Amino acid sequence: MKLCLLYGGKSAEHEVSLQTAKAVIHALDMNKFDIFPIFITKEGKWIQGPQITETIQDIKQLQFSNGGNELMPQSLNADYDMVFPLLHGPNGEDGTVQGLLEILNIPYVGNGVLASSAGMDKVVMKNIFAQAGLEQVEYVSFIRSTWDADREAAYKLVEEKIGYPSFVKPANLGSSVGISKCDNRDELEAAFEDAFRYDRKIIIEEGVIAREVEVGVLGNDELACSVAGEIVPKKEFYDYEAKYADDTTELMIPADIPEKSYDEIRKMAFMAYKALDCSGLARMDFFVTSDGRVLINEVNTMPGFTPASMFPLLWKNTGVPYPELIERLVDLGRQRYEEKQ
Ligand code: ATP
Ligand code: MG
Ligand code: MG
Ligand code: MG
Fold first, then answer.
1. What's the rounded Cα separation, in Å, for the pair 45 and 65?
2. Which of 13, 10, 12 is nearest to 39 (CA)?
3. Which residue has the least CA distance to atom 25 on ligand 1?
4. 144 and 169 both lie in a single domain
5. Which atom of ligand 1 is nearest to the CA of 237?
6. How far apart are CA 150 and CA 198, in angstroms?
7. Which residues are paired to 288 by β-bridges?
8. Ligand 1, atom 23: closest residue by C-alpha
9. pLDDT reported for residue 78
């Protein structure tokens, strides 16, 4: 099978994607897969490298600083049996690359255009979850021009509807980039400024005091749910540093939660998956409050995917080791492609 890996990308999650690519290459059985790499630079250039026939030692080898060919995305080789977009965040996890692959009629791993784009936009995602009857925190949203027209009115609305503590987030991002927790007006104002640096739309949520529990879902029509995992950050919340820079965050797998909570999480994860029309995979993030209430926080349609990331670890603990997980995802991509023909 000719498998093309797309990695890097024009998003704040570029570095994470390179780590993922290295790990996926390491895990792929080269007797089954011919691996063709495409590195997307931070500026958005597509650089095609030679077929990979050996394990990668250093991620620099994946960047083809001397020797890759620049490629127009629309001239992607239509002979690939499958493309695996190992991309997080805007321009990769958000349906744009998926749309290109649809137009080129090349099978690909993971979610389609709709689930990817709806899942990337936290406002659209939460509106869909609300419509599906899923419990979640209160939220409001602003676009930059509305805020700029009357900033005072925007802050007042947040204070009335959400209060403190609140979480301010760019609508379309991941890895906690641009997210702030606010306990007062000064912090709220600074958080708006910061979040609007990343996006023209932001979301402000009620901050909850709760345990953070995540599950992985695999499947197209028939769904499987992994065991649950709990994130125990040693800081105020699970921010970018806690995710990638320091190793103080603990992942507890399986999470030590009552069976009743797990059943509720599994049920809600499937409902959310179907509401967004996901396929292939998704990681669903939840809050579990001290009185046992389960709230959905968000979906990630291309979750962190190194062997040390939550999604692969959840599946490892459910009996699906990393190399097998990759093969299952490739099979699911193929199935979805064939069903559409
Ligand atoms: P990723 O895609 O990497 O999972 P993200 O950038 O999409 O992250 P969120 O998962 O929405 O961001 O939030 C990041 C973290 O911030 C959460 O894991 C949690 O620690 C904290 N957090 C977010 N929203 C809330 C909230 N409403 N109440 C309490 N904590 C929150
Ligand atoms: Mg996310
Ligand atoms: Mg994410
Ligand atoms: Mg999250």
1. 12
2. 10
3. 207
4. yes
5. 20
6. 20
7. 211, 294
8. 167
9. 84
Which tokens in the block code for residue 238?
Answer: 């699970």
CATH of the domain at 256: 3.30.470.20
Average pLDDT over residues 89-93: 89
Residue ranges making up the domain that contains 178: 139-206
Token pair listed for 161: 């509807």
pLDDT at 31 over 90: yes
CA distance 126 to 134: 9
Q: Are residues 126 and 251 in the same domain?
A: yes
Q: Are 9 and 92 in contact (CB under 8 A)?
A: yes
pLDDT tens for residues 59-72? Answer: 999 999 877 899 99
Cβ of residue 271 lying under 6 Å from some atom of ligand 1: no
From the list 278, 321, 316, 308, the residue with the least C-alpha distance to 110 is 278
Q: CB-hemisphere CA count at 13 Å for 318?
A: 21
Range in 114-118, 163-167, 231-235, 336-340 the model is least confident about:
231-235
Q: Which two tokens stand for residue 234?
A: 């040693």
Task: Say whether both 173 and 98 belong to one domain.
Answer: no
Give the mean pLDDT of 214-226.
98
pLDDT at 234: 83
Q: Which of 285, 293, 296, 302 to mutate to test the pocket of ligand 1 (most atoms within 8 A of CB)?
A: 285
Cα distance between residue 157 and residue 67, in whole Å: 54
Q: How many Cβ atoms from other residues are within 10 Å of residue 109's Cβ? A: 26
243's CB contacts (< 8 A; 6+ apart) are: 175, 176, 249, 304
